[in-house]
Specification:
Elements: H1 7-19, H2 27-40, H3 45-48, E1 49-50, H4 53-65, E2 69-71, H5 74-79, E3 86-87, H6 94-101, E4 107-110, H7 114-126, E5 133-136, H8 144-153, E6 158-161, H9 168-180
Helix pairs in contact: 2-9, 6-7, 7-8
Family: Belongs to the CobH/CbiC family.
Keywords: Cobalamin biosynthesis, Isomerase
EC number: 5.4.99.60, 5.4.99.61
């Protein structure tokens, strides 16, 4: 989906690229890294994100083919304006129920709830869930780092970061980067 960028956004990306060299990144990795750096105005995100081009390709293919997008909270869903999402926080049984409904091929975008990330990591590790991509960027001093690590260790295609930083706006930005790349 092509979109027209406002002149201020164009200038922001020019400045971003003068501060962070993303030219060596593959197309989708570059789109995601730049979108998250732009969203936060924090170039250090470029070194904190763990991106895998094949995982991002899988997620993009899934999103553009119309698979379910599952988010942990309404804030993530509201920021993805080009398509509807299922919201775990508003679903009886939460993330586990949605994972059970869509055990294969969905895209999960989690930016708030580290417990949802931990639950998904367990489901993926057991083979009960095979998503196209999990974007896991919850923030927090308690549990977030460990949940993101468990997700990476599960072998599922994922986009995460190393540290405690994150949030719903970042999970949203990652989905939008894939949709608009």
């Amino acid at each position: 989906m092509a979109r027209v960028r406002h002149p201020i956004e164009q200038e922001s990306y020019r400045i971003l690229r003068s501060r962070v060299d993303t030219s060596g990144l593959p197309v989708l990795s570059r789109a995601v890294v730049e979108r998250l750096v732009h969203t936060t105005a924090d170039p250090s995100w470029a070194g904190d994100l763990l991106v895998d081009e094949r995982a991002l390709e899988s997620g993009r293919r899934a999103l553009t083919s119309g698979v379910p997008l599952i988010t942990d909270v309404r804030m993530v869903a509201a920021g993805v304006t080009s398509r509807p999402a299922h919201i775990a926080a508003e679903t009886e049984g939460g993330i586990g129920a949605l994972a059970g409904q869509y055990p294969q091929g969905a895209v999960f975008a989690l930016g708030q709830d580290f417990a949802a990330v931990a639950e998904l990591a367990g489901l993926c590790a057991s083979g009960a869930l095979r998503p196209a991509l999990v974007i896991a960027l919850p923030a927090g001093f308690v549990g977030a780092v460990e949940a993101k690590r468990a997700l990476r260790e599960s072998g599922v295609p994922a986009l995460t970061n190393r540290g405690e930083r994150g949030g719903a706006a970042l999970a949203t930005a990652a989905v939008n980067a894939l949709l608009y790349a």
